[in-house]
Description:
By secondary structure, this protein is mostly beta strands. The protein has four helices and 36 strands. It has one domain (86-476): 7 Propeller (Methylamine Dehydrogenase, Chain H), CATH 2.130.10.10. The longest helix is centred in the N-terminal third of the chain and has 31 residues, at 24-54.
Amino acid sequence: MTQPVSSQPDQPEQHHQAQPLPNKHEERVSHTSIFALLALVGLLLILFTGLLIGNLPQVTQPDGTQQTLTKQGTALATSTVTPTPLLAPGGNAAASLQFPAGHAVVYETQDNKIYVTSANGSLPQLVNTPGYSYNSAVVPILTPSGDLLYSGDSGVWSTGIFGGTAKQIVTFPADQVITSLALSRDGSMLAWSTEPQNGVGSVKLYAGSLSDAMVSPLGEAALVYQQPAEDCPCLRVFSFLGGSGKQADNTLLLTDDRGDHRAVRYGLWSFDLGQRDSAQPQPLLAEEEQQGPLALAPEGNMLLYSSYEGVVPAPTDGSTPEDIDALSYANSLYVAPIGGKPLVLNPAQVILPAQHELSNSAEYHWVATPLFSPDGHTLIYVEFSSDALAPFSRHSALYTVQMKGVGGQLRAGNPQLLATTTAQYIEPGTESGAWLDNSTLTFYADRALYAVNIHTGAVASIAQTETYARVLAVVKQEGLKGPEKSSVV
């Protein structure tokens, strides 16, 4: 077959040799090779772009999101980052926990504010707390009826979590500083203590009916005991006696602060409110050996205390709150029931023995914020060590201890590692309000709030706080607004 060509005038006719038609198989191979080459080039471009983006700076935003930036600072992508501060005993990341819907967390900050927040995406709301003053030794308390009691200007105040008018229910002179605040388990009795700000005057203990305080503020009429501030023990309230009934509401457990207004506790005494006119503090735990009470189980009056406390170097990198980092910490854990008439501390079981005369300070174990679960069946605490050299970084872990039996039949199991942590500072919530239920504990870690299942170690992220925060209570969620209408920390 020949291809037609035009004959030019005045030129001889030219004949061309016929060319074979293209082979169909060779045509397909040619096309495939071209497509493969284009695909390879595209893949190389994608890989090169990925490497370029991967080397661009990552910027973490205050809300916990992370953005990848171009060299010109343009955001290419945004993703939510929810780091877990806990690691399982094997070193793997802790399992994920679903924080139950319908609950909110109340917490306080050192800038004299109290907030309520939830894990549903809403921003924290500021609780109405006029005159509120942050005090690590006087923790706000949630009453059984849902009101929040807190120390403020010249007294104690009560306010609602989700709105309402704050009311002063306790008054004391402006030259006095409140050093403790306690509520009986049934919420019927309130007790507190004050000391003179300048150290000259009297240490005073007060107790009265909370229902009376809600009608008219309690003042000097609620005074139950006083002593010269220059003559310690300088007593403050540790707690009401546990259990239920008249004895629980009428018996205070006291401790000594040695004139230090911070959260310190040395020794233990009982005080019978039923003998107000003649009652004297009765010693239960000597303080000469640096012994101090740590927690009281809600049932059975099981006292957790330390036989030895010591000062741990304060981290110099600002990772722990200033009013907490230089406190004395427990170096041992003992548990013993309180009982009998008169009350006595029964023989104790050793959970964690004290350490003495170690050559390397980094080998000491220290215990912080131990708590009993609401049913008293589990003890959980933070154990940490401190580097021997600046910045004296702390390395923490969570431990649990199973408690079986009551009274003289009490048996404490061996401490079990629940989780280690990557956080520089970790702190469970307060004894009276940290628990969602008997298994779920809320805690703070490096500017964020979390919840952990104390049996499985699973963790839920609740909220970013952008500052140190202490969990006060877990409450039923009511009326939390959306992000566009909420107050921001």
